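Reopening this one. Same input as before:
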Amino acid sequence: MNMTYETLLLLSPELGSEGSKEVLDTLTGIVGRDGGQILKNDDWGIKELAYPVRKQSRGHYVRLEYSLPPDKVSELERNIRNLDGIFKFLTVKLEQEAESKED
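Same output, byte for byte:
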C-alpha cells in the first residue's frame, strides 16, 4: 500500500532551469519505477538562504508530494544523495485523511 510523502529539495541555483528540470525528471522516473506517483510538484523558485550552503547565498526550492510504498522511500533518498546539484532535502510522511471523531 502506498503512503503519501513530501520532499522539500534545495537545489543549486547554478543548475539553471534546464538542470533543475533534469534533476526533477530523474526523481519522477525513480518514483514511477518504484510503483509510486508524483501528486504535486511545487516550484518555489530561487530564494535567499538564511545562511550560506556550500558557499551559496541563494537556493532553488522545490516541493514534491508523491505516493510511494514505504520500503522504497530510502531508495529515493539514496538517489537524491547521489545526484549532483541538490544541496539539502527533507522527507516527511503526510498524514492520511483525518478520521472524524465522535464524542
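So the earlier flakiness isn't reproducible anymore. For the record, Residues 24 and 62 are 9 Å apart (CA to CA).
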